Amino acid sequence: MKDMQKLFPSIDGNEYHREELISYIKNILTEIDELKDPSKLTLGEMPEYTEDYYNRITQQAKVPEMGLSMEETVQKLLGLVKGHRYVNSNYVANAAPLPNIASILGNLIMVLVNGNSLWDVEGPAAATAEVEITSMLSKLIGYDPNVSAGYTTWGGQGAVFQSLRLAIARHEPQSNQKGVPNNVYCFCSELSHYSLYKSVEATGIGINNMIRVKVKEDHSMDLEDLKEKMEQVIADGGIPLYVLATMGTTDTFGIDDIKGIKGITEELEQKNDLLPIYIHADSAMGGMYTFFNDYDFETNPMQFSGKVCDVLTNYQQKFRNISIADSMVFDFHKLGQTPYITSLFLIKNKEYLKYVDLDASETPYVGNRGYGSYHTSYTLECSRMGSAMAIYASLLAFGAEGYQQLLANYIHVNIAFREALIKEVPNVAITNEISPITTFRFYPEAPKWNDEQNGYVQLEEMTEINQFNDKFAEVIGIERDIIFFGNTKKQCLIKPVNASQRIPVYAHKFFAISPYTTIEEIDRYVAFLKEHMAFYLKTREQILV
Ligand SMILES: *Cc1c(COP(=O)(O)O)cnc(C)c1O
Predict the structure, then answer these.
(1) How far apart are CA 66 and CA 514, in angstroms?
(2) What DSSP assignment string belongs to 267-302?
């Protein structure tokens, strides 16, 4: 076994073993650093993804008969990293984080002691960190930390799933035994994330019982439509169970009016003698902006510009109401710049958990012992990674002010990008509100966004404009290793003048996510789009001729 022991860290803390591990880590950091190039998105060249790329890998793969040396193993791993996208200033596509140093170290510590957040006996560090961040963030958003509960889970999607599970169990405590009733309904904005779609599918509620509510021009839920649709469900004998309030839609950063939603659910509960309707704030994208809930914009101690303050003041009014929600989520691995997966699911009232908690007799391996007092038998996972460590580390190292600075910069950069784009490119329209994301749409000739929004444009023309944007996404996508813009095929739905159905609108996305995406970079982004558009218009003309 001596040979095998060499593959593990020491148990006595000897220096020789430590230096060996450090040397591997140093080698990895050095080689990755050598691949970095601030003017490119990728670490070295992208592999050539031929048709049979994965097929060939499938054919060649085999467990080696004899283990490789650690040096060879590291080289194999670094081989996989070649061509990897690296979130520097050239990445403006989606909410992909560049993990900050504190979070990397938090993660490393978690791996070194390999705690299991399932039970504090097996993972005391992460369990305590989890309790601590639950309290810290409860205080930030206005939940009572003595009443709230929270745990890290599998992403914003996991939070949606688990909130729906709580809603079902609270509404129908017998459902654990008897299954889900077939007359309950969920409501969400038509621009909400597909998390709820998957969750109604997996819980057995069924997609037919998920009602999509229209959005307004600001991409937030149209509350009149919500009310009408809830009343219709009730009139047809259904029971409204759950509303998903999206706080920051994935593509356009629309923020639902959670106070307005609560007003409607309470009114309907009273009028129809219903049990409380559960509201989950899907704040996977926007939740970090609760860091401004207590910011004083009058004195503006961080000296944000007037325009940035205007946007943030507006957010403050909306995000202060998040405490109305029965649960919400912090997806640190989006705007919080930590590694995957670091999501905290926060529940307003820990009482809800009793409906889904397992009886001690169902968990014979752990928990029902005299030792240990933190046992998460209510989570859908059994073993859980201690990702609370990475979140905790980031909160300590950034502080509220650090996050405020980071989050304000996303807005600052977007304002500048919008102004420069409109100034430099004549055939573009900006199609969402100011936020960390700018969506924009190009036109073969002059922009027609207002006409499109008002429903004056023909189906054929809107389809052509969609295709114009789709092809342009292909054109700039070829050079995504220089600058990588995002795009969406459903920024929203709009009705053409001559059609009865609304159709999805294609748009491009600029997502200021990296801390290296600063004001100084704006001209470069806009020049890239301008040059490629000129080229695209020219080649298109030639093809049309
Ligand atoms: C990203 C996102 C999700 C899913 O979050 P994951 O962490 O990727 O699981 C859910 N809802 C919204 C609004 C999102 O933007």
Answers:
(1) 42
(2) HHHHHHTPPPPEEEEE-TTTGGGGGGTT--TTT-TT
Cβ of 282 less than 6 Å from ligand 1 = yes
* pLDDT for the residue numbered 359: 75
287 lines ligand 1 (CB under 6 A): no
Q: What is the pLDDT of residues 369-400, one digit of tens each?
A: 667 788 888 999 999 999 999 999 999 999 99
Domain coordinates in residue numbering, the chain: 2-86, 404-544
Residues β-bridged to residue 85: 42
| pTM given for the model | 0.96
Nearest to 196 by CA among 95, 278, 261, 138: 278
Contacts of 311 (CB under 8 A, 6+ apart): 411, 415, 434, 435
Name the residue of 188, 258, 334, 337 to mutate for ligand 1: max ligand atoms within 8 A of Cβ: 334
335, 345, 323: which is closest to 394 by C-alpha? 335
> Residue 254: CB within 6 Å of ligand 1?
no
Contact between residue 198 and residue 186 where contact means Cβ atoms under 8 Å apart: no
**The two structure tokens encoding residue 282:** 């899907």
Q: Are strands 428-430 and 437-442 parallel, antiparallel or unpaired?
A: antiparallel
DSSP H helical ranges for 273-387:
306-319
- What confidence category does residue 19 fall into, taking pLDDT thresholds of 50, 70 and 90? very high
Distance of CA 534 to the CA centre of its chain: 34
Angle subtended at Cα 497 by Cα 495 and Cα 502, rounded to the nearest 5 degrees = 15
87 — pLDDT class (breaks 50, 70, 90): very high
Cα 335 to Cα 148, 287, 514: the distances in Å are 23, 9, 9
Which amino acid is present at 230?
M
Instruction: Identify the helix (H) or strand (E) that includes residue 202.
Output: helix 195-203
In this structure, what token pair is assigned to residue 309?
Answer: 């303050």
Q: Are 43 and 32 in contact (CB under 8 A)?
A: yes
The alpha carbon of 199 and the centre of ligand 1 are apart by a number of angstroms equal to: 13
Question: pLDDT tens for residues 425-452?
Answer: 999 999 999 999 999 999 999 999 999 9
CA of 330 to the centre of ligand 1 (A): 10
Superfamily of domain 404-544: Aspartate Aminotransferase, domain 1 (3.90.1150.10)
